[in-house]
Amino acid sequence: MAKKRLVVLSGAGMSAESGITTFRETGGLWEQYRIEDVATPEAFQENPALVLEFYNQRRKQLEEVEPNVGHKTLARLQEKFDVQIITQNVDNLHESAGSKHILHLHGELTKVRSTKHPHLIYDIGTKAIKLGDKCDKGAQLRPHIVWFGESVPAIDDAVPLVNSADIFLVIGTSLNVYPAAGLIMYAKHEIPKFLIDPNNVEVPYGLNFNIIQKGAGEGSLELEKKIMQYV
Ligand code: OAD
């Protein structure tokens, strides 16, 4: 028999136990930096060096962090389920843990792309880029990140994936940022749905999530036990 499909929507809380700060909590990244200074196309136009440096630091941090129990549990679940991860995270920790099917909604830190030819995308790992670093056609490179105010092209692939879920898991996201947050509306009504987060996350009334109010590591171990009945 084909494996049941487990579709996961992950956010910054997924990587919190790996030491990467979330965005909206006290002490989070958006308290340390203003979104408008570092994460918009306008910011890149006005002060490209600052924006590049912001992402250079985030990229460099990837050298120091490792997947946590949560990432590893989701990777292990591939033995029993057809696991599809849709992540808002720009880190590479799902990959490092061994998950095979990952859709990055908001881009990837380890990639950069041409400012003029968006199809020219380069893998740079954890290296820095600076003003003057150019694509093969001579245009400045930029982070391969979806900034505020930009469209989220991967959403078109994400919608049918969520709709195809036999089990749906939302983990470590405040569900504040659209269109990503709207994806939860596309899970079929009758399937089991779980939400792992140590804090209260508001989900629209009637969606019937089983709430596991724990961190990603502990929470995903509990989820693993709960979903074995569906194998
Ligand atoms: P947020 O910072 O908005 O939310 C993080 C969520 O993780 C919150 O609900 C926390 O309660 C939860 N959390 C904290 N610690 C946790 C733990 N140990 N285990 C599990 N959950 C934990 O982050 P996102 O919802 O991912 O976009 O934010 C969405 C987008 O906004 C990001 O992708 C980013 C940001 O601006 C871009 O940069 C384009």
Give a topology summary.
Elements: E1 5-10, H1 29-32, H2 35-38, H3 41-46, H4 48-61, H5 69-76, E2 82-87, H6 93-97, E3 102-104, E4 107-114, E5 121-123, E6 141-145, H7 155-163, E7 167-171, E8 193-196, E9 210-212, H8 216-227
Parallel strand pairs: 1-2, 1-7, 2-3, 7-8, 8-9
Antiparallel strand pairs: 4-5, 4-6
Helix pairs in contact: 5-8
Residues 11-13, 16-17, 22-25, 28, 39, 88, 106, 146, 172-174, 176-177, 197-199, 201, 215-216 line the site of 2'-O-acetyl adenosine-5-diphosphoribose.
Number of helices: 8
Number of domains: 2
Give the assembly state of these chains.
single chain
- Overall helicity: 25-40%
CATH architecture of the largest domain: 3-Layer(aba) Sandwich
Strand order of the largest sheet: 3-2-1-7-8-9
Small-molecule binders here are:
2'-O-acetyl adenosine-5-diphosphoribose
Radius of gyration: 18 Å
Strand content: 15-25%
Could you name the ranges where pLDDT drops below 50 across 5 or more consecutive residues? none
Walk me through the structure.
The structure is a single chain. The protein has 231 residues and is an alpha/beta fold. The protein folds into 2 domains: 1-19 and 67-106 and 151-231, Rossmann fold, CATH 3.40.50.1220; 21-64 and 109-145, SIR2/SIRT2 'Small Domain', CATH 3.30.1600. It is 27% helix and 19% strand. It has a 6-stranded parallel β-sheet, sandwiched between helices. The chain has a 3-stranded antiparallel β-sheet with strand order 5-4-6. Strand 2 (82-87), helix 6 (93-97) and strand 3 (102-104) form a beta-alpha-beta unit. It is globular. The structure holds 2'-O-acetyl adenosine-5-diphosphoribose.
